[in-house]
Design a protein that fits this description.
Layout lengths: L6 E8 L2 H76 L6 H68 L2 E11 L6 H26 L4 H4 L9 E14 L4 E13 L5 H4 L29 E4 L12 E4 L5 E4 L8 E8 L5 E4 L2 E4 L3 E6 L1 E8 L6 E7 L3 E5 L8 H17 L3 E4 L2 E5 L14 E5 L3 E4 L5 H11 L4 H4 L3 E5 L2 E5 L22 H15 L3 E2 L3 H9 L52 E3 L8 E5 L15 E5 L7 E2 L3 E2 L2
Parallel strand pairs: 8-14, 22-25
Antiparallel strand pairs: 1-2, 2-4, 3-4, 3-6, 5-7, 8-11, 9-10, 9-12, 12-13, 15-18, 16-17, 18-26, 19-20, 21-26, 22-23, 23-24
Helix pairs in contact: 1-2
Length: 658
């Protein structure tokens, strides 16, 4: 007997709509708030630009007044000389009239005094304007962080909404008719008809779930990887009958609930996996980088699973979990790993004449001969020609050069201090890079992208300056920070910076140890520490320039972060980054993996002061912080502040010239 066409009539009612509406409202309300904050941010940007133009005009007026002051000073002196000459003539001839000369001098003095008063007033106006600019900048930075935080919340809400939309419940009524086979019993035909009806019901239920997804356009193209399932809560036969022509008809009422592989929600929405870390333990502490074009792509095939007995609750996967087979990529150029170690710190490795930074070093090199040299001042250089044909490790031993006793006595104190204070310094190799927003995710002040060349290597502290290190400076120098001498330090309260008199580097508003980054310091407080290192060691310590800082942070990368364009989960301490300290406090320095140059916390933890550019009164801080959004911890992010600003999310690190 041939199989008759399958006729099926399905009516579906989806429940849990109140939860769906709540999720939609949550996302919608966040998006409305984002729109509002974005408008406020754009307004602040316009106001700031206007104030900066006004400041420029005020400065130009001040320059004119100062130029006029020199002319008026000259006129006053000439008028004085003329009046003195007339007085001498009057002594000889009392009839000489000096009125005109006296009036000229009085006018010159008055004009000169008025100009000085105008300069004083102009300076006061500029100072007042600078305060307004600083307030606008801080408000803008705060608003920017709030805006980026809302975007983080929106992404979390989108994930939760999608999860709830997949988890809807509903009932399906199915009317199904089939032809019974000659070889099967009536009971077998009945069971087969009910199974086929249930399969179609679950498929249609799943289709309806997808059709009602709020972000169906985003999800549809990745439907096969969703791992979506349907759980049959209960099913019963409403009516059934056999016809005289060998047909079996059945009416089913099926209650079902949808579900989804929660670990794949972020992939469906094109979001970083950290937004789904609460749904899957497998994602904890794991960063999944974006697949590059030259990496093999899994070939995924799906198969349908048989339907379980309808008498009990069952799960039907449509489609089933993917069966994955990976196409192997053919080996490309033969590269081998060369690992270099030495018995000293603060050395510099040169391979084929190119600086690669300090040991410990691991680098992939093409097969063949390579000249390796490891240098350190005061030591004989290590040199070796390496024929690299497999992975290899070299442990170099550098021998100290004998120093004459007289020279040793003179330098003993300085070298001893330098040895102690320079622990943890990393040589950053010379090179070139593109500075600025390379991915299009940045702010206006990160453009244009500019090629920068660093002709010489430099030494940077591998970690941010700690509370313990700054304490040693305070104990020896009796230095008083600006927070201690002034109005304290700023902290975030409900998304706004608030000044608190009692906060300073010793008490920043959260518990800290000696291994925490020192915060609540102004630019001058940070510079004072670097100057102290210079006096202690005789070495040239200073704050890094913006170019040096970004070059070191990128460590050869062209992505937003040294490891890729996604922040990942628990890879750094920034707001909503999934660390134990996120939005709570700074973390002990070095709590996360270093970048390829061996530098820690170049992403997040605390913003870091950079060297002030000549002729500018403002300074950039870089790197992001524990209470700032991940998008503000990118390698190219810049926040511009006045030198006297301090907060419990701003610290610094130092570099040493070679």
């Amino acid at each position: 007997m041939r199989l008759a066409p399958l006729s099926i009539l399905i009516s579906i009612s989806l429940l849990a709509l109140s939860a769906q509406a709540q999720d939609v409202n949550t996302v919608t309300s966040i998006e409305s708030e984002i729109t509002l904050k974005q408008s406020e941010f754009d307004n602040f940007t316009d106001v700031l630009e206007k104030h900066l133009k006004e400041e420029s005009q005020l400065q130009q007026q001040l320059d004119l007044l100062r130029a006029r002051s020199a002319k008026l000073e000259k006129e006053k002196n000439q008028a004085l000389d003329a009046m003195n000459e007339m007085y001498r003539r009057m002594i000889e001839d009392p009839s000489v009239d000096i009125t005109e000369t006296k009036n000229r001098y009085q006018a010159a003095v008055s004009s000169h005094k008025q100009n000085k008063d105008d300069i004083a007033m102009q300076l006061a106006a500029i100072a007042s304007h600078r305060q307004e600019i600083e307030q606008i900048r801080v408000a803008k930075h705060t608003l920017l962080n709030t805006l980026e935080g809302l975007k983080e919340q929106r992404n979390s809400a989108r994930v939760e909404r999608l999860r709830n939309e997949f988890s809807r419940e509903g009932t399906v009524e199915v009317s199904n008719t089939i032809n019974c086979k000659r070889t099967e019993t009536l009971a077998a035909c009945e069971q087969r008809g009910q199974h086929l009806g249930l399969q179609k019901a679950t498929k249609r239920f799943l289709d309806q779930i997808f059709a009602n997804l709020t972000e169906i356009r985003t999800v549809e193209s990745k439907r096969n990887m969703a791992g979506a399932q349907v759980q049959v809560l209960n099913s019963h036969v409403v009516s059934s009958e056999f016809s005289g022509q060998g047909n079996y008809s059945v009416n089913l009422n099926v209650a079902m609930r949808g579900s989804v592989n929660a670990a794949r929600l972020c992939q469906l929405l094109n979001l970083d996996n950290r937004f789904c870390s609460n749904y899957s333990n497998e994602l904890t502490n794991v960063y999944q980088p974006t697949v590059e074009p030259d990496i093999s792509i899994p070939v995924v095939s799906f198969k349908d699973l048989p339907v379980s007995d309808i008498a009990t609750a069952s799960v039907v996967t449509a489609p089933s979990a993917p069966q994955v087979s990976v196409l192997k990529r053919q080996d490309q150029a033969l590269n081998y790993e060369l690992i270099l170690r030495s018995n000293v710190r603060d050395d510099e490795v040169f391979i084929d004449g190119v600086s690669y930074g300090s040991t410990r070093l691991s680098v992939a090199l093409p097969q063949g001969l390579h000249d390796v040299e490891i240098r350190k001042t005061g030591y004989e250089s290590y040199r070796q020609s390496v024929d690299l044909r497999s992975n290899r490790t070299i442990r170099a031993k550098l021998t100290k050069i004998n120093t004459p006793i007289a020279e040793l006595a003179q330098s003993m104190t300085a070298s001893s201090a330098d040895s102690t204070l320079s622990q943890g310094m990393i040589v950053v190799p010379a090179g070139e890079f593109e500075m600025g927003d390379l991915t299009g995710n940045g702010l206006a002040n990160e453009l244009p992208v500019v090629k920068k060349i660093l002709s010489d290597s430099f030494v940077m502290h591998e970690k941010e300056v700690t509370v313990g290190q700054y304490h040693a400076f305070i104990n020896e120098s009796n230095y008083i920070t600006e927070a201690e001498a002034g109005k304290g330090c700023a902290y975030y309260l409900n998304g706004e910076p608030v000044w608190e008199q009692s906060l300073n580097w010793k008490s920043p508003g959260y518990e800290q140890g000696d291994d925490f980054p020192v915060v609540c310091l102004t630019y001058n407080d940070a510079k004072a520490y670097a100057d102290w290192l210079v006096s202690k060691t005789g070495q040239q310590y200073r704050l890094p320039t913006e170019v040096e800082w970004e070059y070191a942070a990128r460590a050869g990368s062209k992505t937003d972060y040294a490891w890729g364009n996604d922040i990942g989960n628990n890879l750094a301490n920034c707001g909503w980054c999934g660390s134990a300290w996120s939005n709570q406090s700074a973390a002990p320095v070095g709590s996360f993996q270093p970048n390829k140059y061996g530098l820690y916390d170049m992403v997040g933890n605390v913003w870091e002061w950079t060297q002030k550019t000549a002729g500018q009164s403002d300074v950039a801080v870089r790197g992001g912080a524990w209470n700032f959004a991940p998008s503000l911890a990118r390698s190219s992010t810049r926040l511009i502040l006045t030198t006297d600003f301090r907060a419990n999310y701003i610290g610094f690190r130092v570099v040493r010239e070679r």
